[in-house]
Design a protein that fits this description.
- The complex is a heterodimer of chains A (about 280) and B (about 70).
- Helices cover about 75% and strands about 0% of the residues of chain A.
- Chain A has helices at about 1-10, 15-25, 35-55, 55-75, 80-110, 110-140, 145-150, 160-170, 180-190, 195-225, 230-255, 260-280.
- Chain B contains two helices and no strands.
- Chain B has helices spanning about 5-25, 45-65.
- The chains are: A mainly alpha (about 280), B mainly alpha (about 70).
């Protein structure tokens, strides 16, 4: 579960959807109704957050310093300060929606059937984002250029608008639906806001870090209270962190010239196959 | 960004309101949109409203007219 969650958290294929679907399909004994299930997933998220903090440790130092400098001065003077304020703007809608709606949404859609259906929808969202991106590339007459040259026509993360940052941040709330990928919707949202693929992935990972870390830290006392095997769960969190670190490195390299399409098609196919397997009880 | 004293004051007042709401959630006085109404404290909500208060104060500082 640790490897699965870590690998699927940053790949735009919905870790929560896979965490609901895979145990059901493989008949694992892990009970999703167990009170420790959600805290266990949150502990795995802590591993993922640690991986992201490690990957972006230098940038986070600059971002935190930039936040305090800009907040005290009341003015933005460089890209680190702007990125810090953009991340704050993007995190607030996700935090509000998460605190007030997360449990209600998760309880409504916690069935494997819903996860499989929403996985198909997740694929559709990513394919739709790429379709709109290709239209934009045609509009800016970049369609005939190489992929690297096409990407150079678009912005980096520090130059997204504040309204777009808030919207991309709010999109994270869609990931409370099992089957909808946080990184999928935020990378897709970043593309629509005019970011390069690689920068959209970077913004998505930076945006995810405080939300994942905050959610994990809040849930940890519940994990300790539940009387669960903490050592085993911690080992799973380490595995999740390693998988997440390698996934992030791979994705950042992939998105230099790659698109969301393969992940979109994977989600559509995996969702449809899962629906069929669940329906026929295989 | 729009800079005006009235906007800055409004955002600062909003920040204070958020701090009051955070305290009410922490002491269990407010029970709006909580997952467990029987819990005496709602620290998650408290943390959220503290974050909102900080954001409001930062925004107020940005909205404050600068002399230079």
């Amino acid at each position: 579960m640790g490897l699965l969650q870590g690998a699927t958290e940053l790949f735009p294929v919905s870790s929560l959807g896979h965490a609901v679907l895979v145990p059901s399909l493989l008949h694992w004994s892990f009970k999703q109704s167990d009170p420790a299930f959600v805290p266990f997933l949150v502990l795995l998220h802590l591993g993922t957050a640690a991986a992201l903090l490690t990957l972006y440790r230098t940038q986070w130092v600059q971002i935190i310093r930039g936040f305090f400098t800009a907040a005290v001065r009341g003015r933005i003077t460089n890209d680190s300060e702007r990125l810090a304020m953009l991340l704050m703007t993007g995190t607030i809608p996700a935090a509000i929606l998460g605190v007030f709606l997360e449990n209600r949404i998760k309880s409504l859609f916690a069935s494997p059937y819903a996860a499989a259906g929403l996985l198909v929808a997740n694929g559709g969202l990513m394919l739709g984002a790429e379709l709109l991106r290709r239209r934009t590339e045609r509009r800016v007459q970049a369609a005939s250029l190489s992929r690297i040259e096409q990407e150079e026509r678009f912005n980096d993360a520090a130059h997204i608008s504040f309204a777009a940052a808030a919207l991309v941040g709010a999109c994270q709330a869609l990931a409370f639906l099992p089957g909808i990928s946080r990184s999928g919707v935020t990378i897709g949202g970043g593309l629509l806001a005019g970011l390069r693929h690689q920068e959209s992935a970077r913004f998505s990972f930076l945006l995810a870090t405080p939300v994942i870390l905050g959610a994990a830290l809040i849930e940890i006392p519940q994990l300790l209270n539940a009387g669960v095997p903490v050592v085993e769960f911690a080992a799973a969190a380490v595995l999740a962190g390693v998988a997440a670190y390698l996934s992030a490195r791979f994705l950042l390299r992939y998105f230099r010239s790659g698109r969301l399409d393969p992940y979109g098609w994977y989600c559509v196919a995996a969702g449809l196959v899962s629906l069929a397997l669940l329906h026929f009880g295989l | 960004m729009i800079r005006s004293t009235s906007l800055a004051v409004g955002l600062a007042v909003l920040g204070v309101v958020f701090i009051v709401i955070a305290a009410l959630y922490a002491f269990g006085v407010l029970q709006i949109l909580v997952s467990d109404p029987n819990s005496p404290h709602h620290y998650t909500h408290m943390i959220l409203f503290i974050v909102l208060a900080v954001a409001s104060f930062v925004a107020a500082n940005f909205a404050r007219p600068k002399t230079v």
